[in-house]
Design goal:
Two copies of one chain form a homodimer. Chain A has 357 residues and is α/β, with parallel strands linked by helices. The first copy, chain A, folds into two domains: 213 residues, TIM Barrel, CATH 3.20.20; 113 residues, Beta Barrel (Lyase, Ornithine Decarboxylase, Chain A, domain 1). Helices cover 29% and strands 22% of the residues of chain A. In chain A, strands 1, 2, 11, 12, 13, 14, 15, 16, 17 and 18 form a ten-stranded mixed sheet that branches. An eight-stranded parallel sheet of chain A has the order 3-10-9-8-7-6-5-4, covered by helices on one side. In chain A, strand 5, helix 4 and strand 6 form a beta-alpha-beta unit. In chain A, helix 3 runs parallel beside helix 4 and helix 5 runs parallel beside helix 6. The longest helix of chain A is centred in the middle third of the chain and has 21 residues. The interface between A and B is large, with 67 and 67 residues.
Chain lengths: 357, 357
């Protein structure tokens, strides 16, 4: 539940949400999905926050996506009743018991990418749970090759699962210049995998994909569902990939200048508030919203050292907004998001923070 | 307060502490400091856990080091009454009020590295608070150059602070082959800075340094105090720097094998449980305790993809212990550390988790 913050601003560093930008982005992506005739099932791992998920639902989201059973339980407790756990879950006795409880409150779909995982899920849960076969479209993380999707779907169905289709994550869209290519790979892999299901006698109702960088390029002639996460806030990765303008960034880490050591800007944000993410193509450990020329060249737990390329340093004691490289990991470090709306500060709890299992 | 865990093991991924290794390492470092005649003031940011700090105190630690005011408040509430906040704090009205409350419960020392920071701290707190001048010995993060320490010490003393000496962090010890060099830089910088204080008429009582990689090389003829943090648990960085054997690692992230996609091991640990740290010299995103040949080649929020160099993959559904690259960031993602001692599982709360401000 959101609460107002009567004591004033929290100590820095803290995560600050711009609600106007947030609502605008949620509405825009929902409208695009609607216009393209595909379902939108946002990944709530980015915000882990009921208030944001409610805005997404109000804008027309068709259920939510989560990464873990713990996240699913948290959102089900808050009334979300159509949940896709986009992950090749391993269900042992304990997690199967949790899953049975969850199925009493929500329609749940899980991912499968191995005969072992499918057999174990089927043995524990049978047709009470829906499943999508995970396909690797080029990110090479998890998932089977598209040509193997039919065989795995049959194994899963024989194990008792209600197989509804296929899903993929075009994570290789997170690289400069590869975004369009990843969207092509996504459509091709989902189309081939769906065809393999059909040949095997299982009708694929869901062809699910989507990532924030490739979102505008996903082939909605093939896909039936999109699962973007980061789009609600944006981050320095999206800024540097060119898939989002800094004017669109809706979450920053407000920090204090604590030093000008060695002629550089030293902020009290660090890897314990921003996350330590740095993709090989990133130009630093995060960006400064009001100083596009700046680069965070050194990051430790409570220091972000920025080189301001010769421009004047904001004074010691002043406040600076840092754009984290990867917003999902920054949010997962905070217990609260602070929302400034028309001069009123509201605290949104990150209810699913740390729900990794 | 630690509690036993009657329900059995938590869901993976979770952080697991080996208490025998932990106690051994705490005792060994305390004995070395004692033998060298220097104070040991461990940095509790690594564990953020009262149970571990109590073991350090029982082994002879002379107070504790923290990075933030929030960490200081947390440990003061648990009876720790001699606290060094090794950070160039900016004290505004709100944090100065918190600091005054804290001073009612503990002797507190803060860091200063700018005239502005010293003036603001002095204006709010005066001689109720002790201060050490921070010196940059080569890490180039925060701190003044050693030759400037005398001038800043005088400024801080005139602002009303009780200046007790100098401190540094030889963070450039975190690089293969530079550990010994960093220890030499540390001693040289502290000695020069202390001499500058003396010349300026301020007797330096404390010359504080230390980092886990350089710990055995710190010049205890110069330093009066050591502030290591990571040594209690160890991590993959220490393993790869050669400053700790894997047999000495006391904290792992226990994870489940969820897939064999593309012939690689896919674990349910990811950047939301391990942290995303990867130093330029690291060979991957973490190591596997029982598979020294393995490298985590791809890390996302809930997937760690390991290449096992052709050795057989542990089966899907089995458990694997991951050694995080940087243990401080892994601990700060967890609410609980699970301690297995002679078959009994105990939960230690990470009480200062997320206390960034």
């Amino acid at each position: 539940m959101s609460t107002s913050v009567p004591q004033g601003l929290p100590p820095t560093p803290y995560l600050r949400v711009d609600p106007v930008r947030l609502r605008h982005k949620i509405r825009r992506v929902a409208e695009r999905a609607d216009a393209a005739g595909v379902a939108l099932r946002p990944h709530v791992k980015t915000h882990k926050c009921v208030e944001v998920a409610k805005l997404q639902r109000a804008a027309g989201a068709d259920g939510i996506t989560v990464a873990t059973l713990g996240e699913a339980e948290t959102f089900a407790r808050h009334g979300f009743d159509d949940i896709f756990i986009a992950y090749p879950l391993w269900l042992d006795e304990v997690s199967a018991r949790r899953m049975r409880d969850l199925l009493g409150h929500a329609r749940v779909t899980i991912g499968v990418d191995s005969p072992e995982g499918a057999a174990e899920a089927g043995r524990h849960l049978g047709e009470r749970v829906r499943a999508l076969v995970e396909v690797d479209c080029g990110h090479h993380r998890s998932g089977v090759q598209p040509r193997a999707a039919g065989t795995l779907a049959v194994t899963a169905a024989r194990a008792g699962l209600d197989v509804r289709g296929v899903f993929t994550f075009p994570g290789h869209s997170y690289a400069a210049g590869r975004t369009g290519e990843a969207a092509v790979d996504e459509a091709r892999a989902l189309a081939e995998a769906a065809e393999r299901l059909r040949v095997a006698g299982i009708e694929p109702v869901v062809l699910s994909g989507g990532s924030t960088p490739s979102l505008s390029m996903s082939d909605t002639g093939v896909l039936t569902e999109l699962r973007p996460g980061v789009y609600v806030f944006g981050d320095a990765q999206q800024w540097e990939l060119g898939t989002m303008s800094p004017d669109d960034v809706a979450l920053t880490c407000r920090s204090t200048v604590v030093s000008h050591s060695n002629g550089r800007l030293v902020l009290d944000a660090g890897s314990k508030s921003l996350g330590a993410d740095r993709a090989p193509w990133a130009t630093g450990y995060g960006r400064l919203l009001e100083h596009p020329e700046a680069r965070i060249v050194l990051l430790s737990e409570h220091h972000a050292v920025a080189d301001l390329a010769g421009t004047p340093l904001p004074p010691i004691g002043s406040r600076v907004d840092v754009v984290p490289n990867h917003v999902c990991n920054a949010v997962n470090l905070a217990d609260t998001l602070y929302v400034e709306d028309a001069g009123v500060l509201t605290a949104w709890p990150v209810v699913a923070r740390g729900q990794n299992g």
